[in-house]
């Protein structure tokens, strides 16, 4: 929602380009700290507790934005929202990955990104078609508390049985497996005993196992986040800077393309494998802003084609960001690992979100699209060199299933 209301806030608060960039990136900054710090906490205390309390924080901070009438107050509240989101970025995929078998991991973990796209599109449509002024901007910001409260329906979701077993709480783990996974008491006990007796799963012990370096995934996903997050946040401003006519309707088309791309992207991330999916989408994403840079003085129709392609492929490519991290780490370290990779990739998102409005105002759309293409080209090269294949990784959860 922040991207939609920033133009109105810019007038009422007299925001500079720096403040617009800080407010646009504020949640991403908070997300960085929340992912890294609370991801480690999730490996020490129960995952389920963070999975609930993070959205209590998000709901309260979202509602409080209604009274944030200074840039600093709004910035701090959005930091708090990002901090709670960071916890969910670390705990959400971690907890889900510890309940699902490997054959469904790509689709189910990728669906977290698709559902993010649903919320993003709804917020963007509301921001586009509701007349925004100094008053409605605050109502729209505070409306984020409504879905945050709905998410609290997750109360009662059980603790990860894999985490409980790793902490020596086998009886609790077996009870959850009986209740929620339909295993008999004897089967649940046998599963826990077999998992405990299983030697450490390493690449040398099984050809189906990969334990690639986490830095390789962080290095290959960060270049995607740097251009794509700001292009989502500042989509209306990009359209206006490019002088694309009928910007409101074009914005709606782009948002629908984003949602459709996310849904369709679930199939190739599952079927093609993680490495070819990453490399292929990076290559396509590199071409799109490059074409926009060359066509920046062209017609609206010519500019919309690569912008539409960028939005569609970007949404599909984003599904991998929830899949890769959960497949890299064993149960005991998964919260920390997922939090670290999500947090570090969002550093690039925050940098891009801060830089883009400054770049648009000082250098125009052509040069701005140009540096986005260069960053994505770097991601393509890094992915070719380092992106691992993790689709066939065996985890403790697969052994249980």
From TrEMBL:
Residues 1-391 form the Major facilitator superfamily (MFS) profile domain. Its main location: membrane. The chain crosses the membrane at residues 18-38, 50-68, 74-96, 108-130, 136-157, 252-270, 276-295, 302-324, 365-387. Residues 197-227 are annotated as: Disordered. It is a multi-pass membrane protein. GO terms for molecular function: transmembrane transporter activity. It is found in: Cell membrane. Residues 197-220 have a biased composition (Low complexity). One of its GO terms (cellular component) is plasma membrane. Pfam families: Sugar_tr. It comes from the Bacteria. This is MFS transporter. It comes from Streptomyces violaceusniger.
